[in-house]
Amino acid sequence: MTAFFQSLGMTYEWAWFTSTIAGILLIALPLMLAVAMIIYVDRKIWAAMALRKGPNVVGPFGLLQSFADGLKVFLQETIIPSAANKGLFLLAPIITFTVALLAWAVIPFNSGAVLADINVGLLYILAVSSLGVYGVVISGWASNSKYPFFSAMRAAAQMISYEVSIGFTLVCVVLWAGTFNMNGIVLAQQGHGLGFVNGFFFNPLLFPMWVVFLISALAETARAPFDLTEAESELVAGYQTEYSSMSFALFWLGEYANVLLMCTLNAVLFFGGWLPPVEWSLLYYVPGWLWLFIKIFFFFFVFSWIKATVPRFRYDQLMRLGWKIFLPLSLLFVVLISGWLMLTRYGV
Amino acid sequence: MRVSPLVDLSQYLPILIFLVIAAGLSAAFVFLPMGVAHLTGAHNPNAEKLSEYECGFPAFEDPRSQFDVRFYLLAMLFIIFDLEAAFLFPWAVSLDLTGWPGWITMMVFLFELAIGLAYAWKKGALEWE
């Protein structure tokens, strides 16, 4: 893109700057649009599984429902509780949403179509997504109210518990791919299964890690069945209880942006990212970003499906699953996978 | 221009610009509706509206009172195991360079941490009844 702006008569620096800004807007604005639409899709899928209609009034098939909701919260009054720490109270949604956007900087949408092609892309995503817990904790603390505080404690413990197992599953992927670079990880999956299936999920050693990653992703984003942070029957609305207007909506947007990010990571790390599902030259005529979007949408459907059908976990079950099952299991697989790679690839 | 820097920081410049734009966007989302509410007259606070949520009652106690010590324990365990993961990452991409000695060293390290996990488990740090 830099070359295009240079052809318009800009110097290299300005062309680079313009193309970077354009790239950022090309990620951030469609992402917000996608989040608005995916909330609608989520509600529709959920409704369909409960034999309801879902949103169907605003616009054709209710397609504009999210935008109507957005306009409504935009015109609402922002209530800051008198007991709250005002600065932190307003900072929390800003942190949540900023961090949710920021992780997308290293996601490869196609071969070479990535904003920042850094060589530690996966590490960057891990770092940025763990910052998300600050938004939740700060909102719970700054609200100075009982339910948000309990919810923030729960959310912090839940997020950090599952971050550990996510970290170990990512180590397994990195071991096999031999690189942190997101494009490198995608390319390492080319023809991985029997020479024609693109994706690490086909690998018998990595498949269990994909299952662990999928479930941990649900817990990390506090999606059902792990939505204990806003278990409405006991904690009202969790850490968002005291929020109103757009600061409330930012938590929603951030949450769904994180869910989309986790779906994308599933696609990029285990299902070949922008590569077609199998090695077949005809499939390469479909653009790579379309393959990625199809995979993301598929995983989002799975997430919605789980939300609609699986009952909520108890907190002790959640902690047991994270610390007593996933952590030892993923540790074991780090040993197994690295040992296997030493025997077959590096050590000989 | 330095000679072959270890980390090419210029790669991270787009992320820095992204950070500024994303933070600006989020701040606009928070502060713009406040301004709009002042203009439209929706901004109309009163003491009842600004009190904290407690199912219609006045708050019973200070919400920032004691909380369960297990959250604290968990946070400490998290630091240990997340740091462990941070050690594993550079090792994972350099298996071809370190070879068997590197692998065995890491296995010894992992074994020690597994003992730590088993100890925490046995002591009941992972129990949430």
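Chain B has four helices and no strands.
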